Amino acid sequence: MGVMTTGAGGFEAVLDHLTGEILEGRVAPGDRLPNERELAAQLGASRSAVREAIKVLQAQGVVTSHTGPGGGTRVSASQGQALGRILKLHVALDAISFREVTETRVVLERAAATAAALHCTPEALDELEAMLAQMRETPDAAAFNEIDTAFHVAIARIGANRLIRDVTVAI
């Protein structure tokens, strides 16, 4: 890890550095990052700049932090929830319209169904059939919607494409 200067954009420099480490493959999902003090010393940045950069990465779902033995800050293996949070905010701010989300969902569901058809096992098919039976038998709209959502997420998961799965969960 290289040395950087601190200043007004100190946390942004730390953020850029950590993002670069991930993009270059030097830090992988599950890897533990050095602690705040070590990162600050390695990068020539303030601890507050490191802390702020870590908070941004946590909000993006890129890293998770835990205290105690075996804790620390680790690169996350799944970004599904963070994508959902970001998407909801963009819809709320009218940066993305509901129509665009709906069109994207249709495209995603077609891709997910195609991938699921290629990767489906008898067990996965049984799972989907059970969900369809539950939907047919459920008179409650809220329960139906919950099962329907689980059904579509299951199709995306069966397709074995993590990005399709995570974006489907987000939508």
Write a structural description:
The chain is mainly α and 171 residues long. It is built from eight helices and two strands. The protein has a two-stranded antiparallel sheet. A hairpin with a 5-residue loop joins β1 and β2 (72-75).
Short descriptors:
171 residues, 66% helix, two-stranded antiparallel ribbon, mainly alpha
What's the layout of helices and strands?
Elements lengths: L9 H14 L12 H8 L3 H13 L3 E4 L5 E4 L4 H13 L5 H22 L2 H16 L3 H18 L3 H9 L1
Antiparallel strand pairs: 1-2
Number of helices: 8
Unreliable sequence segments: 1-8
Order of helices and strands: HHHEEHHHHH
Taking the sheet with the most strands, its summary is:
2 strands, antiparallel
Helical proportion, percent range: 55-70%
- Tell me the structural class: mainly alpha
Quick one: overall form?
A: elongated
Strand order of the largest sheet: 1-2
Mean pLDDT: 88
Give the termini distance in whole angstroms.
37 Å
> Radius of gyration, rounded?
20 Å
